[in-house]
Amino acid sequence: MYLGRNLSWPRHALGDRLFQLDQAAQAGEAPWAPRVDIKEDDKRFVILADIPGIDPAGIEVSMDKGVLTIKGERKQENLEEGHRFTRVERAHGAFLRRFALPDSADAEGITAHGRNGVLEVSIPKRAESAPRRIEITH
């Protein structure tokens, strides 16, 4: 079974808003964007972003009004005098990714760490609230 690059997220599990905001690179705000995978289990969402050659300390992960932003920059390699590139395929420059988080995400518990060229952003889920009856007073 081939799923392709654009997996459909089950709306009942993730909500209509999950990760729909990520259009920064397409809108010209950044010349490139790292590839990401997004996975989910019962307790959290995890964003895995490929960032080879970028020091994780130079990446900014922020949260504002339900939107998670990952931004940073891959510097272009400086060449010694007399050297030149014969091919350039690796993207460089600033990057920006934005993700609208679902209501079930716990923004206060978000953590991030980088290792082996991959940034992992862990977004815990809030406990589901139980329905309650509201009494009507006379």
From TrEMBL:
It holds the Pfam family HSP20. Belongs to the small heat shock protein (HSP20) family. Residues 27-138 form the SHSP domain. InterPro entries: A-crystallin/Hsp20_dom, HSP20-like_chaperone, Small_HSP. This is HSP20 family protein.
